[in-house]
From TrEMBL, chains A, B:
The protein's name in its UniProt record: Uridine 5'-monophosphate synthase
MF GO annotations: orotate phosphoribosyltransferase activity; orotidine-5'-phosphate decarboxylase activity
Domain Orotidine 5'-phosphate decarboxylase, first and last residues per copy: 32-249
Keywords, alphabetical: Decarboxylase, Glycosyltransferase, Lyase, Multifunctional enzyme, Pyrimidine biosynthesis, Transferase
Catalytic residue list: D91 (for ompdecase activity), K93 (for ompdecase activity), D96 (for ompdecase activity)
EC number: 2.4.2.10, 4.1.1.23
Species for this entry: Coccomyxa viridis
Coverage span on the entire protein: 234 to 496 of 496
Origin: domain of life: Eukaryota
Residue sites binding substrate per the record: D38, K60, S151, Q213, G233, R234
Regions that span the bilayer: none
Length: 263, 263
């Protein structure tokens, strides 16, 4: 396994402005934690952003599960992102042909490209999806994460599929900032170090839920798994004190990163 | 190639209420046409529904590209569906873990399960996505289409991936009503005839767009391709007279189906 490179250095190697900003932010804030704010109301998401804000590098949203949305709410989230120094990742999992994702990313009620720093996409439709999203997000300085692997049981993003995703990322580094993945140590070691790896399915104890989710620990994911960022949803948002839980996951994620750097 | 079975008979074989209704509707209305209402305003989608309504079996929406949405608009669309006898398919392409799609399908601003007859999903996350969507759509009598193949250039849904999708559909026929696919003749002949095949990437002349879309003709798709339903977007919605274009595609689709039955 090649030696791990610190985030500060990888910021210099990122070919995408958004990826560069995220590496810099993580190094500055000493946090490689993303929180998945999977709550049903705008009030709750603002509360999570406020409580977890000081500890996170990224706030991950599913805007389409909130009870309301408008540009004022987007502005409130952006303000919290400035105040607490985090970035916003809309986890849209775009998965359509290029022509369709152009409208879905830039238009509609959500206007995702207007307020999110980054979003993600499945490569199932082929590389036209990257071309389409790039026409919208490129000029705005946004970044794209490709789903190379998934956390859930029986996921089909494996083997040759994952290899194709890696290839597409390498070929589109002006817009693709990295991956959503599980075990990049297995397939990403030849990828340029400017690409970032973010991993969901993380809790302090391994396990799963009733609908196929599978959990690994921060140590496992960042250590032997070779990832850079942990994405934590229910481990934080269902905790009695989400702010304290975020602080705990931040420490665990950062300790795992420090250890990986040394080994 | 096994002999094609008429829609009337397949309605009896469908194990999902929504699939059964669609087969019956197509036989009754003599239409195997779905229109993709990919427009940016609610006004335009209502106009398309009104003009194409008499000719279509299915109105396919991307609700997240419309400029506004509320339950009143949903009610207007449902009223047009009753009047003109068509079903509504929200082309959401769900692609997340089971726990997340539960909220995305049932909740948020769109409440997709409340007004759509059917929706679709990618199997990338594994079968937990079917379990999750079923908890919401099952009790409402909705149906799910799985994306087995895609129309776009370089799509990764091929070979072993497509086989896995077919297996998952067969194992979940209480909720999965069929497939979004390209060439079911290649892989679906062993699937139960109660499952339906719907194919996008259709125009009267073959070709493509600048972002990877690829077009085949109705004859090709329904004939040698072995599909049941043609999905047509720009071929209809960009026509000077979308109503007349829908009538034309309806004739072409139905003629191809009649020919397939005879051969
Ligand atoms: O493979 C994936 C990819 C993603 C993100 O792109 N996710 C998302 O992470 C979060 C995990 O939440 P949890 O920690 O509560 O399981 C959810 O928002 C889920 O949609 C996963 O859970 N698995
Ligand atoms: O593989 C697919 C799957 C789908 C539907 O699930 N689609 C959709 O069909 C429509 C094709 O439109 P067009 O006829 O204008 O190309 C678009 O809404 C697109 O998102 C495709 O174009 N290709």
């Amino acid at each position: 396994r090649p030696k791990r490179i610190p985030f500060e250095e990888r910021a210099q190697l990122a070919q995408n402005a958004c990826g560069k900003r995220l590496f810099e932010l993580m190094a500055r804030k000493r946090s490689n934690l993303a929180v998945a704010a999977d709550v049903g109301t705008v009030q709750e998401v603002l509360r999570i952003a406020e409580a977890a804000g000081p500890h996170i590098a990224v706030l991950k949203t599913h805007v389409d599960i909130f009870d309301e949305w408008n540009s004022g709410i987007a502005a409130q989230l952006r303000k919290l992102a400035e105040e607490h120094d985090f970035m916003i990742f809309e986890d849209r999992k775009f998965a359509d042909i290029g022509n369709t994702v152009v409208s879905q990313y830039g238009g509609g009620i959500y206007r995702i490209a207007d307020w999110s720093d980054m979003t993600n996409a499945h490569l199932v439709p082929g590389t036209g999806i990257i071309d389409g999203l790039k026409t919208v997000g490129g000029p705005k300085g946004c970044g794209l994460l490709l789903l190379a692997e998934m956390s859930s049981k029986g996921a089909l993003a494996t083997g040759a599929y994952t290899e194709k995703v890696a290839e597409a990322a390498v070929a589109n580094q002006d817009f693709v900032m990295g991956f959503i993945c599980q075990t990049p140590a297995k397939w990403s070691t030849q990828c340029p170090p400017g690409l970032i790896h973010m991993t969901p399915g993380v809790q302090l104890a391994s396990g799963g839920d009733a609908l196929g989710q599978q959990y690994n620990t921060p140590e496992h994911v960042i250590g032997s798994g070779g990832s850079d960022v942990i994405i934590v949803g229910r481990g934080i948002i269902k905790a009695q004190d989400p702010g304290a839980a975020a602080a705990e996951y931040k420490e665990a994620g950062w300790a795992a990163y420090q250890l990986a750097l040394q080994s």
